[in-house]
Amino acid sequence: GILRSVLEKSDGNSMCEDVRSKILSAAISLEQGTFVIETLKFDDNGPCWAPYESFYSGKNATEIDWWFLENYMYRLLLHWTGYFETGVDPFSEHKALAIEAGIEHLRSIELQPVSVNANEFECFQKFLSLSLWGNRADLSLSAGVVGAHTLEVGENSLLVDDSKEAFHKLGDAKSVIIILDNCGTELLNDLLFAEYLLSNFPQISVTLHCKSHPVFVSDAMKSDVSGHIEALEKISRGQKLGTFMKEERLSLFCHPFYTTPLSFWDVPNDLKTILFDADMVISKGDANYRRLVGDGLWPHSTDFNYVLSYWKSSASVLA
Description:
Layout: H1 2-9, H2 17-32, H3 50-53, H4 66-80, H5 83-86, H6 92-107, H7 120-133, H8 163-170, E1 175-179, H9 185-200, E2 205-210, H10 222-234, H11 241-246, E3 250-254, H12 269-277, E4 280-283, H13 285-292, H14 304-307, E5 316-318
Parallel strand pairs: 1-2, 1-4, 2-3, 4-5
């Protein structure tokens, strides 16, 4: 699992024995079904979890929502590793390996130029697909293991394809938000997609929404983005990204909501205003999708627009 993977990727110098012991004990108790949720009364400069945990405190991990448990364990892990005091990302080694794997994948494929070509929609589909299927390299789904991933998939793998509607919507759009998910392959692909959008739709700006602290192993923070841009530039990709950032057409944003166990219908008013004011919101990955649908067991035939009926905005949502 994730906890054991963190131990394997760390060495004796980066993590003291007391911390390693706590992580190992938690991993064992989770595996044995004996882990109990405790109130997180921390004074570590990190986010307060009091509003979320009161309902679950004292319960066995097997009795509570998996969505809450996942987020709770990452908050606990950051406390044990001292992240909020030191700023040292316990997943930095995982992320570095993920960038290497992502760059190797990009070396192996040919991309059309980001400038408009003879078939604009096909070019859009290529970069959108690259961004979409980059999520298959999610390290939280592979217990932190970086390896080969099948990123080239066919149209039959999509349940619903609204790419044509999205493409036409971009013609009138001025602001696009991409809610990021993972570092490595996915973020590299997302950055290339953002570069494509900014190159081909000169009227728009793109804002990348990042996590405020490490979570789900490889989720992208503001501090992760620059390293990915540098990695792309070394292989002569993403060369316009730096210019777009200087022009403030490409910007980064983070909000603590994205590391909570809340669903999007509980989004704080300040973030709601930002999301609802955008012309298009592209939500990446498993965790963000689960936030959109409340991590609920909806019938397979449920219309996505019905689930998003709480989204009182004209902003188009791709997820």
